[in-house]
């Protein structure tokens, strides 16, 4: 009875007080204190909390929901004007203080002093002022509860304001209140607020910071004087990047990190190579002087695109550092690095990402402007692409080439706003305060290692010499560069700080700089912790020697016997007990059983599945990704099957045998550019895994053209990076319109040179079986581009016999299949892909016995010798035809003519049969498509006068 009276009294107090508004933060803190120990709160609050809905203590933030709902309900009740004034004032002031604290957490980053140039406009934000919350000067020395403010439970308003301004409005601007996980927010609050700003570092640490800044500035000044006017994309203005990376490596080693993979564009790259990676100055000087040779053959690349790897000693042991090669396409290296990291993590069985960490260094304009950044963030927590968190460093020069961020570079307040899409904390920091930089670096790495999520450091700085050393920045940014012209460097400012503190002598900074110059003159590595290559302790390195210099045209035995096929099918056909399969999938499974027994012709889906199964049981992992790759866009693969009862997935290829290699099939996010780049990065790191990317339709690869142009087709020539990536690109003209017909075969053939890639157009199930197996069994590691079929997946003629898989291998050229008299043949049609079956059916229909049809299944490397020998059996040919479905300016015609002529008898003419020139890949009207298809088939077979197609 007494408790009920107390409760009613409490509810009346609630309804009549000014607590009916703005009470969330205060009540939340009060309730948390009650949960920890009810005795910590006053009796009337304890009585009230005792009556709230009971929740399971094991639940997380959701357990507060019914409590908050009751608070909101009570808060909506109108307050009584008759409440005691003194009590109302006390409670209201307390609530306002908590609101002020939260306002700083949310918005103080906007007024933080993070711009070393002092040009950034800092808005007036009333919510950060005590007066906005009804707090006056008379309240400054009153004591208040601080709620969840770290470090102190009760303090005067004056002390609270000092702590807030030091933490959130100094040289660090922290954005983290957008994070949805309360535990992560409180972790960050604790780390930021408990120190009341950057902590005081030890004398040893402060001297190391100065040493790293000296190295950063020393290299740039040395190069500036020695190689006047040469591009190097100087780090000057962003010198604090070097202490950041140094700390990530050293602290990473303490965390147990074994590998750090870095991706970055141009700015500061040479500095990172010398001062972080340990590249010798002598090597760099040779590159500046044009005397450096590229290892092996190839074109080589400019010095600020080159990668490097080394081993660095840390307090926690050696850490292997890899700086990825990359082109000028800025952020495109991001997903490449992520793919490389995932491969390294898989190799180490590092499922939590504790051993291998990716670090991506961005420019501010590119970070905000390049779509691949968003795609990479979108992959960061997905099953097939997560690397358990990336440390992002933005070298924020506050400008993009000549484009000012205030007006044109972006529509967001910060260049880093894109990172909020994955709830990443963002730590803006003034690049001229190296101790603040070191502080946020430690928080960033510790957050990544604790929560395995992305985190961003926004290093706000400037560039001293413009976009490049040949640029004249004052022409477009006069005010910015007037400020920069008279600005001391970060090293100079920090050196003076240490001098003023009595830590170093006034002449010490210049002595340090001279000692660094002497080391550069000597040409030796300037990284003291560098482990010599011959002493490298890196146990997980891949030996690429067996793959170097190998030819992809070397024949290998890819056949497997019928008994093994039967054994593989037995493993694939086992389903979990009670698993209910879809009726259509069940029919496919039954047909595959018959194919294994030789009772049914083999289709594409069966052959492809058996290629994977055989490789898995031979110890080769398989990684297959793409949009809808689990089932297959055209309902042919069914690598993942779903239980029709509860929707649970089952992957037969993961359950063939106990000792098989790993199979991973991923229905990727709706991305081509980042996903393909990720798979490229994976394949360049792991030659022992069959890595496949499948486009939903072949022309979707258009969105990833930069990956194809800069990495896949040219990576070996530029950087000696071998890669066995497979691209499956559905291709074929079935009247589906311009966007679902062509995989743009001509683009890949145009890129072919120096045996760089393989381009194949298999037309039978046995061919894809042998081709996929050949990609792994051959020691050559070249990218393989495959024009895969759509309608041929179930075409009655596009089938194989069981013997085609148990015998032979992949055929670069498939000769005539019908029994024709070679001497009677006066017309030979050369073709690739689906059009072959249109030609074959029409020839059989009209009973032409003097026309042979020969398929080219590998267009590059072109099989001239094989084709020449195939054609020699026809001595009386009068007409040679190249027939294709694609328009004349597309497809294989122009890129392959010289190979075709080289294979034909001397001076033999070659005619074209196909669609005329067209700007679009295909027509959009089905009736017109059918008309064109009939015409080109007839022209090729000589059933009507041939045209030029012009």
TrEMBL record:
CC cofactor: thiamine diphosphate
Region (Disordered): 59-90
One cellular-component annotation, GO: cytosol
InterPro entries listed in its UniProt record: 2-oxogl_dehyd_N, 2oxoglutarate_DH_E1, DH_E1, KGD_C_sf, ODO-1/KGD_C, THDP-binding, Transketolase-like_Pyr-bd
Keyword annotations: Glycolysis, Oxidoreductase, Thiamine pyrophosphate
Reaction(s) this enzyme catalyzes, per UniProt: N(6)-[(R)-lipoyl]-L-lysyl-[protein] + 2-oxoglutarate + H(+) = N(6)-[(R)-S(8)-succinyldihydrolipoyl]-L-lysyl-[protein] + CO2
Role this protein plays: E1 component of the 2-oxoglutarate dehydrogenase (OGDH) complex which catalyzes the decarboxylation of 2-oxoglutarate, the first step in the conversion of 2-oxoglutarate to succinyl-CoA and CO(2).
Name of the protein in its database record: 2-oxoglutarate dehydrogenase E1 component
Organism: Thiohalobacter thiocyanaticus
Species lineage: Bacteria, Pseudomonadati, Pseudomonadota, Gammaproteobacteria, Thiohalobacterales
């Amino acid at each position: 009875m007494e408790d009920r009276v107390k409760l009613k009294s409490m509810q009346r107090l609630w309804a009549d007080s000014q607590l009916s508004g703005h009470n969330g933060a205060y009540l939340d803190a009060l309730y948390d204190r009650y949960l920890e120990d009810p005795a910590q709160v006053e009796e009337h609050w304890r009585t009230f909390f005792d009556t709230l809905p009971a929740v399971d203590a094991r639940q997380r933030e959701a357990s507060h929901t019914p409590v908050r709902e009751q608070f909101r309900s009570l808060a909506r009740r109108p307050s009584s004007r008759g409440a005691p004034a003194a009590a109302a004032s006390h409670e209201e002031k307390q609530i306002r203080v908590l609101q002020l604290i939260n306002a700083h957490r949310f918005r103080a980053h906007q007024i933080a002093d993070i711009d070393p140039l002092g040009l950034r406009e800092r808005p007036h934000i009333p919510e950060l002022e005590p007066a906005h919350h009804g707090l006056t000067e008379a309240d400054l020395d009153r004591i208040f509860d601080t709620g969840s403010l770290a470090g102190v439970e009760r303090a005067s308003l004056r002390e609270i304001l000092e702590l807030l301004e030091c933490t959130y409005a100094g040289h660090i601007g922290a954005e983290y209140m957008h994070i949805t996980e309360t535990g992560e927010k409180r972790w960050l609050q604790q780390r930021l607020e408990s120190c009341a700003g950057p902590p005081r570092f030890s004398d040893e640490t402060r001297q190391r910071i100065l040493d790293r800044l000296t190295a950063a500035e020393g290299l740039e000044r040395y190069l500036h004087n020695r190689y006047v006017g040469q591009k190097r994309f100087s780090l000057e203005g962003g010198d604090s990047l070097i202490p950041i990376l140094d700390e990530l490596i050293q602290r990473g080693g303490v965390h147990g990190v074994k590998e750090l993979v870095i991706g970055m564009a141009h700015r500061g790259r040479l500095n990172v190579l010398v001062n972080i990676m340990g590249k010798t100055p002598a090597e760099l000087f040779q590159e500046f002087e044009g005397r450096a040779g590229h290892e092996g053959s190839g074109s080589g690349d400019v010095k600020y695109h080159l990668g490097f790897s080394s081993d660095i000693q840390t307090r926690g042991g050696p850490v292997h550092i890899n700086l990825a090669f990359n082109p000028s396409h800025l952020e495109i290296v991001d997903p490449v690095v992520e793919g490389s990291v995932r491969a390294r993590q898989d190799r180490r069985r590092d499922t939590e990402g504790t051993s291998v960490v990716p670090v991506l260094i961005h420019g501010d304009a590119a970070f905000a402007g390049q779509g691949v950044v968003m795609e990479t963030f979108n992959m960061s927590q997905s099953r097939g692409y997560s690397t358990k968190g990336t440390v992002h460093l933005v070298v924020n020069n506050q400008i993009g080439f000549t484009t000012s961020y205030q007006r044109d570079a972006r529509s967001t307040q910060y260049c880093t706003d894109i990172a909020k899409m994955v709830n990443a904390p963002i730590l803006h920091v003034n690049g001229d305060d190296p101790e603040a930089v070191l502080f946020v670096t430690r928080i960033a790495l510790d957050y990544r290692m604790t929560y395995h999520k992305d985190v961003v450091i926004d290093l706000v700085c400037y560039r001293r010499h413009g976009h490049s050393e040949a640029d004249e920045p004052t022409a477009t940014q006069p005010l910015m560069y007037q400020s920069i012209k008279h600005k001391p460097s970060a090293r100079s400012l920090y050196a003076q700080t240490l001098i003023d503190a009595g830590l170093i002598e006034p002449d010490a900074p210049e002595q340090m700089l001279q000692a660094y110059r002497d080391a550069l003159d000597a040409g030796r590595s300037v990284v003291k912790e560098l482990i010599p290559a011959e002493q490298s302790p890196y146990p997980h390195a891949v030996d690429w020697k067996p793959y170097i210099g190998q030819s992809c045209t070397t024949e290998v035995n890819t056949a497997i016997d019928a008994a093994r096929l039967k054994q593989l099918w037995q493993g694939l056909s086992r389903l979990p007990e009670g698993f209910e399969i879809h009726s259509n999938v069940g029919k496919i499974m039954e047909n595959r059983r018959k194919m294994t027994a030789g009772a049914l012709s083999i289709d594409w889906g069966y052959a492809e599945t058996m290629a994977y199964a055989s490789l898995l049981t031979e110890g080769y992992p398989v990684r297959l990704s793409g949009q809808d790759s689990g089932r297959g866009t055209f309902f042919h693969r069914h690598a993942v099957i779903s239980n029709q009862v509860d929707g649970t997935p089952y992957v037969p290829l993961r359950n063939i045998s106990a000792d098989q290699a790993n199979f991973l099939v991923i229905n990727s996010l709706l991305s081509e550019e980042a996903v393909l780049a990720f798979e490229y990065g994976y394949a360049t790191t792991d030659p022992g895994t069959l890595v496949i990317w499948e486009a939903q339709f072949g022309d979707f690869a258009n969105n990833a053209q930069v990956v194809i142009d800069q990495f896949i087709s040219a990576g070996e020539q530029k950087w000696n990076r071998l890669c066995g990536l497979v691209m499956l690109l559905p291709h074929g003209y079935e009247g589906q319109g311009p966007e679902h017909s062509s995989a743009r075969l001509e683009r890949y053939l145009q890129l072919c040179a120096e045996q760089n890639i393989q381009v194949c157009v298999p037309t039978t199930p046995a061919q894809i079986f042998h081709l996929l197996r050949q990609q792994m069994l051959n020691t050559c590691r070249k990218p393989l581009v495959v024009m895969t079929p759509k309608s041929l997946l179930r075409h009655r003629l596009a089938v194989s016999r069981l013997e085609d898989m148990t015998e032979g291998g992949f055929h670069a050229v498939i000769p005539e299949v019908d029994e024709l008299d070679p001497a009677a043949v006066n017309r030979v049609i050369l073709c690739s892909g689906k059009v072959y079956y249109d030609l074959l059916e029409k020839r059989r229909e009209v009973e032409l016995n003097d026309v042979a049809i020969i398929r080219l299944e590998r267009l590059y490397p072109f099989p001239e010798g094989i084709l020449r020998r195939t054609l020699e059996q026809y001595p009386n040919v009068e007409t040679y035809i190249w027939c294709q479905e694609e328009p004349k300016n597309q497809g294989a015609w122009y890129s392959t003519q010289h190979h075709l002529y080289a294979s034909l008898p001397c001076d033999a003419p070659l005619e074209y049969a196909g669609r005329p020139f067209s700007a679009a890949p295909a027509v959009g009207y089905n009736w017109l498509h059918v008309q064109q298809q009939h015409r080109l088939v007839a022209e090729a077979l000589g059933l009507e006068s041939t045209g030029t197609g012009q």
